[in-house]
Amino acid sequence: MNTKKTTKNPSEKKLTDAEIDSYKNKLLILRARLSGDVSTMTNAALNKNRMEASGDLSAMPIHMADVGTDNFEQEQTLSFMQNESGILDQVNEALVRIKEGTYGICDSCGGRIPKIRLNFLPYAALCVQCAENLTEDENN
Ligand SMILES: [Zn+2]
C-alpha cells in the first residue's frame, strides 16, 4: 500500500460528516462483535443468506463452495470465516482513517470508494477495481 491520498474519482461524491459518522458506528459495532462472539454473527449471516437463497433453512449443510460469491454479504461472511482477526485489523484501520480524514479513499489508487461498497464493507480500504485486481493477483 502507498500513501497517495489525492482523490481521482470526482463522480463519486465526498462523504458528508453524517455519513462518515454512520460508517463509524457500523465499524464500532463490527469491532465489538469481532472482539466478542464472531461465530454467532457468522452463523446469523449464513442462515439469512441460506433462507433468502432457497427459502428452506432445514437441511442445507454449510459448504462454502456452494455459497457463491455474487452477493456482498456472502462475500463478507466468507471473509469472516477465513480471516476473523484480519477483519478486526481492517476495522481498526478504517477507524484510524476516519480519524485522519482519509476514510472512503482507496488506499491503492486514491479514488473514492463508492458508498454502495462501504455500505456492505464499511472497513473497505480499496475501491472495487483495486480489490478485484488484488483478488486476481492472489488467484494467479
Ligand atoms: Zn482504487
Residue share in β-strands: under 5%
Main sheet summary: none
Query: Which ligands accompany this protein?
Result: zinc ion
Large-scale geometry? globular
**What is the straight-line distance between the termini?**
20 Å
Low-confidence spans: pLDDT under 50, at least 5 residues?
A: 64-69
Count of separate structural domains? 1
Query: How are helices and strands ordered from N to C?
Result: HHHHHHH
Assign a percent range to the helix content.
Answer: 55-70%
- What average pLDDT do the residues reach? 75
The CATH homologous superfamily = DksA, coiled-coil domain
Total strands: the figure is: 0
User: Strand pairing plus helix content: what structural class?
Assistant: mainly alpha
Sequence-ordered SSE layout with sheet pairings:
Blueprint: H1 17-35, H2 38-54, H3 64-67, H4 72-82, H5 84-100, H6 115-120, H7 128-139
Helix pairs in contact: 1-5, 2-4, 4-5
Bound molecules: zinc ion.
Features:
mainly alpha, 140 residues, Four Helix Bundle (Hemerythrin (Met), subunit A), 0% strand, globular, 61% helix, binds zinc ion
